[in-house]
Design a protein that fits this description.
The chain has eight helices and five strands; from the N terminus they run E-E-E-E-E-H-H-H-H-H-H-H-H. It is of the alpha+beta class. It folds into three domains: 59 residues, Nucleic acid-binding proteins (OB fold (Dihydrolipoamide Acetyltransferase, E2P), Beta Barrel), CATH 2.40.50; 63 residues, 5' to 3' exonuclease, C-terminal subdomain (DNA polymerase, domain 1), CATH 1.10.150.20; 46 residues. A five-stranded antiparallel sheet has the order 3-2-1-4-5, with helices on one face. Strand 1 and strand 2 form a beta hairpin. Helix 1 crosses helix 2.
């Protein structure tokens, strides 16, 4: 029904922002309300999607068209509602999400909030080849050929479990792409790189 609203951001809470358009304040549920902090009391253009339920009419807001499209893709999956979709977007790993879907990496997908194994499998089934990371095209986000390197995947998962950040591990994974080794050796090498 609505494509976007342009108005003044008049309020920011932990779960939503209020966008004032022609003297009407619209509650927009967004992935990360505090991302709009720099625009408080300023004009902003927010892409929206309306969800009508028996007990409520809700508006969801997005910073970009790509983010909105990702949300629409996610809620098309059985088992993922608007709240879960926003939580996934809020994790701010859209490129990793798309890559995991394309590579059928169920383990990676279950790391997102409220995503179990069954829902992760459904995501792959419904979205493979259809979803684009927010802020890019399908071509620019095409996954690198790492599908077959199970040892590297296992090593990265182990490092993630140890508490290392996904952003750091992404760089390390990229460095090892195209190589073959055991998961144990990958972990040893990665630890040396992180200590430096």
């Amino acid at each position: 029904m609505y494509e976007y609203f342009k108005g003044i951001i008049s309020k920011i809470t932990a779960k939503y922002i209020v966008l004032e358009v022609n003297s009407i304040g619209y509650i927009l549920h967004v992935a990360n309300p505090y991302a709009y902090s720099g625009h408080l009391h300023q004009e902003a253009k927010v892409y929206v999607h309306q969800v009508v339920r028996e007990d409520a009419e809700l508006l969801y807001g997005f910073a970009t068209e790509e983010e909105k499209q990702l949300f629409l893709n996610l809620i098309s999956v059985s088992g993922i509602g608007p709240v879960s979709a926003l939580a996934i977007i809020a994790a701010d790993d859209n490129a990793g999400l798309v890559q995991a879907i394309e590579q059928k990496n169920i383990t990676y997908l279950t790391k997102f909030p409220k995503i179990g194994k069954k829902t992760a499998q459904q995501m792959v089934l419904d979205l493979e080849g259809k979803v684009v990371a927010a802020g890019g095209s399908a071509e620019s986000k095409a996954p690198v050929q790492t599908v077959d390197n199970q040892e590297l995947e296992e090593a990265m998962e182990a490092m993630l479990a140890l508490g290392y950040k996904a952003a750091e591990l992404k760089k390390i994974k990229k460095f090892f792409e195209g190589t073959t080794d055991t998961a144990e050796n990958y972990i040893k090498s990665a630890l040396k790189m992180l200590v430096k």
